[in-house]
Design goal:
By secondary structure, the protein is an alpha+beta fold. Helices cover about 40% and strands about 15% of the residues. The chain has two domains: about 100 residues, 2-Layer Sandwich (Phosphorylase Kinase, domain 1); about 200 residues, Aminoglycoside phosphotransferase (APH), C-terminal lobe (Aminoglycoside 3'-phosphotransferase, Chain: A, domain 2), CATH 3.90.1200.10.
Length: about 325
């Protein structure tokens, strides 16, 4: 389970005294996720998620994350909403960690989404991008291009312990992206972790979007690149053109994509692949001894990055 910090029954009783959400009926750790400690809490008034923030989530960023969920929910995006304490706080401290309780969403995440799911989730991502407009707070993408070199340096020459040639792949990609990265595309609030496990479905329709703890201000097309990378590749590493075409068409039906964004898509796809290669590789080489989950295999993203380095225009993703 993705539980790094234990919460005892006594801890839970003390926490719930701060809230007006009823009497606990069940409480258990959640298997999904690798960044935070998550628990499913059921009380006589409903279901909730308790999150203790670990690893890459800075306490100073919590007003952004929690405020964003409220902002999006008010504009029609189905997402968890922070539950305030009796005195109006959105976050508290539990066992030395910042913590928050949010509402629970029904639905299931899909390990292998079909074409219809790719299209539905892409349209929802476009709606999320539009709904984020006007949010008063902002947050720099800490895992954007300026964060890739420090991660790469921290990994050092150990990359080749995982895969032959990975160090050269990273170095060459960093150099290319430093030269080619766009800086004049439309920007706003992005999810920045829009993977299939963060989108819940009810049948073939999106039932909600979760896990906003990488959300930030960045290019919309970069967020689209993250989604293409995580939704449109098959288990054997091949790019599914049918899924890509459906995803891009559905996104554009809600939010038009400019010619400049389309032209930049191959570079953005390489950048988003490198970002997840680096974070997965770092976690793979530096596993948390207290974690009960195995870090995700970075080689999935080295394969994707090699694929994108051969792409020269967006039409190869079935953008046209």
């Amino acid at each position: 389970m993705a539980v790094y910090t234990d919460v005892t029954f006594e801890d839970l009783e003390g926490l719930l005294a701060l809230y007006d959400i009823g009497t606990p009926l069940s409480f258990k750790g959640i298997a999904e996720g690798v960044e935070n400690s998550n628990f499913h809490l059921q009380t006589d008034r409903g279901d909730f998620i308790l999150t203790l923030y670990e690893k890459r989530v800075a306490v100073a960023d919590l007003p952004f994350y929690l405020g964003l969920m409220d902002h999006l929910a008010a504009r029609g995006i189905v997402c968890p909403q922070p539950v305030p304490t009796r005195d109006g706080r959105q976050s508290v401290t539990l066992n030395g960690k910042a913590a928050a309780i949010v509402t629970f969403l029904n639905g299931i995440s899909l390990r292998r989404p079909h074409v219809v799911h790719c299209a539905a989730a892409a349209a929802e991502l476009a709606r999320l991008h539009k709904a984020g407009e006007g949010f008063a707070l902002s947050r720099v993408n800490a895992l954007g291009p300026h964060g890739w070199k420090p991660l790469s340096d921290a990994i050092g020459n150990r990359a080749d312990e995982v895969e032959d040639g990975m160090r050269a792949l990273i170095d060459n990609s960093l150099a290319d992206l430093a030269r080619d990265w766009p800086n004049d595309l439309p920007t706003g609030i992005v999810h920045a972790d829009y993977f299939p496990d963060n989108v819940l479905f009810m049948h073939d329709a999106v039932g909600g979007v979760i896990d906003f703890y990488f959300a930030c201000n960045d290019m919309y097309a970069y967020d689209l690149g993250i989604m293409l990378n995580s939704w449109c590749f098959e288990v054997d590493g091949s790019y599914n053109i049918t899924k890509g075409k459906a995803l891009l068409s559905a996104y554009r039906s809600v939010r038009p994509v400019s010619e400049a964004e389309a032209k930049a898509l191959p570079v953005l796809m390489r950048g988003s692949a490198l970002r997840f290669l680096l974070t997965r590789l770092y976690d793979w080489l530096n596993p948390d001894p207290n974690a009960l989950v195995r870090p995700k295999d970075p080689r999935e993203y080295s394969k994707k990055l090699r694929f994108h380095r051969q792409v020269r225009n967006a039409d190869e993703y079935e953008f046209s």
